[in-house]
């Protein structure tokens, strides 16, 4: 049974505490719904990925780029910088947050399948470490920006190795029907290699792949690495030198439910090393520098959402059984993952012990939509009442970052908690914020 809570969550007399602060105190001081971020847990996970990369790859350890899309704000960008790891951004907005935090540009990697010219120019201007190129158009656009700034821009090519992986399953095929990257199998990747080599203002450092998200087994990563490495071999055979870098992306799965065994850095990195080493031996290549891009695995487990229950309703099912609909004061505007991906979560009553028997329940939000479901099926004590606090763990990744203002619901704040102290690092949106856009 995996632990779904961050390391500084504990339960005393049935009440959830984060770093010693009770759920009732957190709710009183910051309101609900709110995201609570366990700062030490986040920092420890960032460090653990960095350490494991170095331990496994030694002098061939590249960079751990934290994937900002999972969750970013200025304060978190500072923690990432302090942890000594890099940052993967995929829009001008994410880059702006990084720069506002004073993030060292040379440790920023820029992604995106449709970076605008303005975004490319800004990235080159501020001196980002590497741009991951995703289309032939982009080769010209990045080269032009680099020329304009008198630079030689380091780039990687994003490749599609013909593998898609999610949670427990993966499929490996020759071709793929996706918007990202250059397909290896169709020859598009090689065409991109040749096109980059035509550009004196671009320095091709190597290849990148990202095969999916919330992956709980390692085999697909090894196949992807092998396909990238075979292209490194072709490059060496053709041009007589080896490209120095590989970036194998993110996607490492976490525990949303106690039954999900997470992919830990101490398991992932030794396995990646073995896969890379064995493929390099096959193609008679030197070991490249290897980078990775975990997002969810760093921030996902570090946050939980605290809601207040507003109403409950017993609904009779066709089977004759009943279901308790528990409505909370947020929903699909702060967690779209349940409706969008059928993602599963668990929850606890956070403010008290309940001795009541459990019954079939569904945790739903306050939005005007039937699909507004936070947890489709969960057994919760039958005595949940309005005013109870409900905590949902592992909402740090793609929760606040995918939040919306649907139904003009203000987005929740993110409260960082460390050493018994809590502070807002991203404040709650207000109605004034929402009205501020009306012209
Ligand atoms: N690198 C690249 C190029 C990516 O596209 C992604 C995620 C990551 C790294 C980080 O992946 P992670 O380690 O966080 O799994 N909204 C979805 C996930 C979309 C992920 C998109 N790319 C969700 O809520 O599950």
Distance between the termini: 52 Å
Q: What ligand species are in this complex?
A: ligand LLP
What shape does the CA trace take? globular
**Unreliable runs:** none
Q: Total helix count?
A: 12
Query: How much is the average pLDDT?
Result: 97
Tell me the number of strands: 24
Helix content percent band: 25-40%
Strand content: 25-35%
Structural class: alpha/beta
Query: Whole-number radius of gyration?
Result: 23 Å
- How can the largest sheet be summarized? 9 strands, mixed
Written overview of the protein:
The chain contains twelve helices and 24 strands. The chain is of the alpha/beta class and 439 residues long. Strands 4, 17, 18, 19, 20, 21, 22, 23 and 24 form a nine-stranded mixed sheet that branches. A hairpin with a 1-residue loop joins strand 10 and strand 11. Helix 2 (39-57) packs parallel to helix 9 (265-282), helix 5 (117-126) crosses helix 6 and helix 8 (219-239) packs parallel to helix 9. It starts with 8 loop residues before the first strand and ends with a helix. The mean pLDDT is 97. Ligand LLP binds at residues 67, 69-70, 88, 111, 210, 213-214, 249-252, 293-297, 337, 341, 397-398.
């Amino acid at each position: 049974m995996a632990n779904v809570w961050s390391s500084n969550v504990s339960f005393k007399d049935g009440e959830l505490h984060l770093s010693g602060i009770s759920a009732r105190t957190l709710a009183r001081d910051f309101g609900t719904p709110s995201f609570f971020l366990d700062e030490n847990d986040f920092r420890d996970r960032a460090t653990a990925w960095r350490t494991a990369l170095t331990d496994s790859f030694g002098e061939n350890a590249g960079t751990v780029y934290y994937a900002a899309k999972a969750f970013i704000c200025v304060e978190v960008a500072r923690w990432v910088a302090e942890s000594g790891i890099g940052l993967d951004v995929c829009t001008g907005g994410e880059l702006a947050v990084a720069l506002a935090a004073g993030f060292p540009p040379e440790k920023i990697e820029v992604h995106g399948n449709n970076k605008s010219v303005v975004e490319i120019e800004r990235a080159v201007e501020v001196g980002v470490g590497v741009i991951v190129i995703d289309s032939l158009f982009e080769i010209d656009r990045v080269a032009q920006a680099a020329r304009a700034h008198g630079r030689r821009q380091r780039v990687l090519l994003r490749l599609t190795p013909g593998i898609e992986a999610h949670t427990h399953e993966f499929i490996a095929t020759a071709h793929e029907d996706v918007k990202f990257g250059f397909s290896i199998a169709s020859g598009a990747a090689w065409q991109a290699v040749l096109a980059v080599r035509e550009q004196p203002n671009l320095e091709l450092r190597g290849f990148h792949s990202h095969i999916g998200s919330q992956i709980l087994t390692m085999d697909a990563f090894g196949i992807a690495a092998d396909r990238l490495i075979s292209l490194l071999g072709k490059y060496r055979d053709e041009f007589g030198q080896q490209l120095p870098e590989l970036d194998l992306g993110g996607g490492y799965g976490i525990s949303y439910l106690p039954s999900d065994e997470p992919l830990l850095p101490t398991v992932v990195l030794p396995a990646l090393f073995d896969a890379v080493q064995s493929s390099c031996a096959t193609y008679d290549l030197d070991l490249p520098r290897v980078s990775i891009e975990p997002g969810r695995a760093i921030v996902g487990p570090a946050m939980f959402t605290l809601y207040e229950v507003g109403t409950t309703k017993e609904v009779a099912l066709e089977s004759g059984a009943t279901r308790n609909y528990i409505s909370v004061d947020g929903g699909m505007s702060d967690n779209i993952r349940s409706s969008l991906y059928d993602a599963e979560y668990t929850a606890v009553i956070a403010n008290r012990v309940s001795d009541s028997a459990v019954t079939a329940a569904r945790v739903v939000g306050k939005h005007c939509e039937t699909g507004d479901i936070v947890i489709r099926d969960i057994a919760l004590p039958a005595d949940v009442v309005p005013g109870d606090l409900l905590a949902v763990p592992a909402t740090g990744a793609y929760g606040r970052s995918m939040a919306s203002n649907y139904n003009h619901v203000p987005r929740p704040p993110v409260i960082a908690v460390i050493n018994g102290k809590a502070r807002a690092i991203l404040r709650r949106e207000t109605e004034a914020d929402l009205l501020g856009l009306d012209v």
